[in-house]
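User: Sequence recovery, please. Input:
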């Protein structure tokens, strides 16, 4: 399975008094990788807003497997679940670059809304085309938890 790859280095300000990354930063890393992935097909948050769409998070899942320390190099791997409805689910894995060990895994689910904040039932073609390109490049296995 191919996954989108985003690299980062843990900054000192991201660790707690134990010297481990505070788990809340994982969500910011998920977002950074997700935005870069969407940038590949021109679906940045700003572009989606210009098109008239809001894409809020409605579900977040996170499983922590191994603490991450300051100055570690981390690879964020992202894939997309196929969908028929106006919901987009991204699956993430945080992997320690030096060891290849899985540190955390999770997912975020997002719905599509119009500017009046009404939920859409289907993904509009202007969004569906680029998303399908990403799903073809970086497919997640539908129904498989991102945390395995």
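Assistant: Recovered sequence (148 residues):
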């Amino acid at each position: 399975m191919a996954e989108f790859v985003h690299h980062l280095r843990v900054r000192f300000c991201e660790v707690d008094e134990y010297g481990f990354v505070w788990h809340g930063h994982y969500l910011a890393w998920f977002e950074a990788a997700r935005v870069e992935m969407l940038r590949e097909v021109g679906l940045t948050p700003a572009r989606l807003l210009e098109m008239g769409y809001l894409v809020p998070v409605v579900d977040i899942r996170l499983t922590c497997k191994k603490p991450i320390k300051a100055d570690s190099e981390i690879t964020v791997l992202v894939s997309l679940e196929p969908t028929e409805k106006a919901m987009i689910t991204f699956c993430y894995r945080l992997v320690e670059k030096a060891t290849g060990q899985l540190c955390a895994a999770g997912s975020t689910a997002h719905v599509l809304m119009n500017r009046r904040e009404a939920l859409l039932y289907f993904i509009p073609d202007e969004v569906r085309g680029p998303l399908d390109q990403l799903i073809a490049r970086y497919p997640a296995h539908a129904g498989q938890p991102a945390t395995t």
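Residues 81 and 144 are 9 Å apart (CA to CA).
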